[in-house]
Amino acid sequence: MNWLHSILILAVAYAAVFFQAWFDGFRDLLGAQIDFLPALMVYAGLTGGPAVIALTAVCGGLWFDSLSANPLGVSMLPLLLIGLLAHRSREWLSADHAAAQFCLGAAASAVQPLAVLFILLNVGRPPLLGWKSIWQWAVMTVGGGLFMPVCFALFNRCHRALDYQPVSQPSFRPDREIKRGRV
C-alpha cells in the first residue's frame, strides 16, 4: 500500500476514538459504548503491512486509553495481536462479502475486551465487572461487527476519490488493423 492508505487508517482511528469519547448516544440508548478500533485493526491487517498495523495499534491504543478508564497502554497489545493475526491469515480470510466482514469484525470486537480484561487481571488492576458486563460485551461485539462493512465501504470510497483509477480500456486496441493507402 502507499502512504495515503496509512494516513487514512490513522485518521480514521483518531476520529473513531474521538467519536467514541464525544458521542454518548450509544451509551444512553444501549447501555454500552461501541469500540471501533478492533474492526479497524482487522481492516489494517487485511490491507496494510506490519508497520501500518503496529502504528495503528500503538497510536489507537494510546488514544483510546487516554480517554477511557483503562491504564495507559493496556489496549495496545490486544489491538496489535488482532492486526497481526488478520495480516498473517489474510490469504485464507474472505473479506469480500458483508457477512464475512461482519464475522471478522465481531470476532475481533469480542476478543479485544477479553484480552484487555486478562491483562488487567494479571497486572493487578481490578476491573469493574458485573452482570451488566455481559450485555456490554455483547453490544460491543455486534457493534464492531456492524462497523466492519462500513469500514470497508468508507475506505473503498476514499480510495476511489483520492487514488488514481486504472483506465478500463485504452484507446489503442492491439487487435486493430490499420489500413494505409487507397481503400
In short:
The protein has helices at residues 3-22, 25-30, 37-47, 50-66, 76-88, 98-123, 132-162. With 183 residues, it is mostly helical. It has one domain (3-159): Arp2/3 complex 21 kDa subunit ARPC3, CATH 1.10.1760.
Describe the protein.
This protein is mainly α. It has one domain: Arp2/3 complex 21 kDa subunit ARPC3, CATH 1.10.1760. It contains seven helices and no strands.
Features of this protein?
single chain; 183 residues; Arp2/3 complex 21 kDa subunit ARPC3; elongated
Largest sheet: none
Beta-strand residue fraction:
under 5%
Rg measurement, Å:
21 Å
Distance between the termini: 51 Å
Write down the secondary-structure element order: HHHHHHH
Helix content: 55-70%
Annotated CATH architecture: Orthogonal Bundle
Number of domains: 1
Total of DSSP H or I helical runs spanning 4+ residues? 7
CATH fold-level topology? Arp2/3 complex 21 kDa subunit ARPC3
Uncertain segments of ≥5 residues (pLDDT<50)? Answer: none
Average residue-wise pLDDT:
88
What top-tier CATH class fits best? Mainly Alpha
Shape: elongated
Tell me the structural class: mainly alpha
How many strands in all?
0
